[in-house]
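Minutes, project check-in
Item: structure for the 147-residue chain
Input as provided by the requester:
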Amino acid sequence: MRVPERLRIAWQDDQTLKVETDAGMQTRLFSFGAPLSQGGDWQGVSQASWEFAGRGGRGRGPLGGTLKVVTTKFKPGYLRKNGVPYSANAVVSEYYDRITEPDGETYLVITTTVEDPAYLTQPYMTSTSFRKQADGSGWNPAPCTTK
């Protein structure tokens, strides 16, 4: 989720948040309950929880909450197309924060940390921002072209 793209986020059911991307036509499922799959694929197993300010949480999103997603059990691959590999034992932790600026603009900031003792000597951290659009008129799904 680091390429220029649009996101569509909606509840799939009471325990599952679905995040779709138009670039690469990816769908991620964040489970707030029992895992939805055994993993072993590119998406892995994503367990979600809310963290709130005042309880040790980060607390920058709505009502002071942050969506935390920890993903494990995915296929090995590369952090970047020409970069460092990651193993099947890597752990990806993501924090989703909704930020509203004084002018009313709303952003989604995703802070990602990858930890993998097989290939990384320290956590690999990135941050990506998305600006909320008024409607879905720019939604244009296209398949992934990366090999």
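Outcome recorded: The chain has a mean pLDDT of 86.
No further action items on this chain.
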